[in-house]
Design goal:
Number of helices: 13
Number of strands: 2
Distance between the termini: 32 Å
Radius of gyration: 20 Å
Largest sheet: 2 strands, parallel
Helix content: 55-70%
Amino acid sequence: MSETARARQFLIGLTGCAYIVVPVLAWVVGLSVDLGGFAEVILAALVFLLIFGPLCHWRRIPSLKCIVECVGIGSLITAPLIVSAYTAFALDLPLQDQQLLQLDRGLGIDWLSLIAFIDSTALLAKSLTFAYHTFHHQLFFLPIVLSISGHRARAYQLIGIYGLICVIACIVTIWYPALGTYTDFALNPKDLKNINGMLGVEYVPQILAVREDPNFVLRLEQASGIISFPSVHAAVAVLCSWAVWPIRWVRFPLIVLNALMMLSAITEGGHYIVDVIAGIGVAGFSIAVVLNHSRNGRLPLFHRGPFEGAQQI
């Protein structure tokens, strides 16, 4: 089996597992979900895949088939990933903002001073705002660019790694739920001159509701990116920089863009510095796992020992 086929296999397998496991976990923790909005997204993604996937296969256009599957499956896996994030918070474990803040201070980081410095530099602040909002655009367009450029395996790997990053982030955030720095420091983003920061507080009501309101119902149109530790924005910045490396004409511009996106997680998303560091670690681990599976046909946890396969005596 080729690297492209294995990368595709991983993406499909991860998506299938998400649709099996996440609804069960949501039911176990008692998370109520309004299926209407989610059903629309799922149905649209399935129709898109079932119409254009076989057509591209029949017409023997592998690059277009890769684009269709990356976009379609990428949309399909979004629903269970959103539900899994809310499921983690619904467990209602103690908030860890003070512990994360202490870790930042242990690194010698003064978050308020950093924010004040960036806010005083209009060009930097506006650049970070722009970079922060390229998150979904990169995840949508990079598989297209990679497929057209002949890097189909990397296109499948990009979406598969993104899914794995989100799964790991949801698992970690079970024990490290947090409201974020703007809430912890009681800093109103409206008091800042150049930094937006509103995205760093808009998800807080959702966190409090899923943890405290027994009548809370998750609706797709109201869902937010509620994970603080690790930072998914920082992880995706690493992922996109890795993904684009083989394409020289966009390599360095996108690396600069993603460096800004990583930093913007602090200013726009209200993340602690340790959130960003953890996001970088999760990205590196996820890339290694998917690459190992794509190239060797196995996951690290199931790596054969030195004596496996030896003739038994």
